[in-house]
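Render this sequence as a predicted structure.
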Amino acid sequence: MSVVTSRLTKEQEKKLCTLLGQAKLSLLFKATVHGYNNNSFHQKCDRQGPTVTVAYNKSGYVFGAYISKDYAQTGQNVTDDRAFLFSFCDHKPKAKPLHVVSNNPQYAFTDSSMGPNYDSLVFLYNNTATVQSNPGTYNFDPIQMHGNDIQLIECEVYRVEDYGGLMETPWRNIQWTSEKRKVLMETITNWRPDVGSVKQARMLLVGPVGAGKSSFFNSISSVFRGHVTSQANTGSAGTSLTTQFRTYSIKAGQKGKTLPIILCDSMGLEEGLNSGMDMDDFTSILRGQMQDRYQFNSSMPLQTESVYFRKSVELKDKIHTVAYVIDASKVKLLPDKMIEKFAALRRKANQMSVPQLVLLTKVDEACPLVAVDLKNVYRCNYINRMMREVSDLLGVCLSSVVPVKNYSQELELDNDTDVLLLSAVNQMLRVTEGYFDDIYENDSLDRIKPLF
């Protein structure tokens, strides 16, 4: 699955958000990737709620339009008193953005099968990289709007979501003190499963490419080592950087004892056939049959004759908990095929009685209110909405959705980041205890002799 990246720079986004307010922009359509094509535009952008179209030309102008209503190809003129056109120029960094409202909000935009049509500006005109410019319903000077340059080098459409501000009180209680960090570290270090044959809980990390699986391991390892480390390969390439099945133990300090957890890193999930980790490999991992450093092959799952196939499996080799890793800023953009893959994985894990939860990563990237202060994570309305949406999409209870921020660009540890990461691991251990409780109960039942 290729990664579609925004052309909008941080500075350009800041300028645009002076007009939009405190908003989250999620890229839906990119003409250089999806084509300067009306059908592609509608396939990606219909019924997405408020959107902003952003066009770029060689003259350095960034211009477009915001609407608060859906595209739905009704063939009607749509009333929208919140719609506006905008423009700013990279060559004029200190100038305020141009903001133009409609002379008649009843004709804010035409909801047709064409490209984004605001009467005075029509994008993807005749399925080409051009804009039809005809000031009328929106009255503007073409020089100010686009410098009389209607040839585009890019056209993007973003969903616009209101962050919703902060709640007065957090909806989950969490202590952010250094003392709490110490308690969590001790709790994790001293945890022991109730089954004598198992010394470490094996936790499998599963998720789309770039969601932060490897970064999560690196972050947990960093907390316990006392400095930021990067043992597992990370990045945002279009295909998975994790090509091997890896099982990582973590030490408490450079020469400290090994923690009672093993984090298992898997190949990223991808939409297409013969790409990413498949169901057979997932099943082999859950059963404990796949050994460390097995090289994934998307076209052929692990074979029984492979040297990496574990023929004699013990309880300690099996997966005791699955953690689905999902990028908080990509929740709304999860393709249907990816959701179907998650559903299939959930069914298989349920069949094998393996408990599951969700790690919602990159919460600081998803919401600037959290980026400013991580302690806002349980006060942020937007993050709350994303957690509830993930809960619905994957069919897990809300208590099984845990937000985290991985270390990605930092050089030093941060107490708040550590507390959130350690809280996630602690919750994973609590879930894992349920797995061993079931094993213990089933084992006890098997030992009961019939009376007759």
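Summary. The chain is about 30% helix and 20% strand. Residues 10-162 form one domain.
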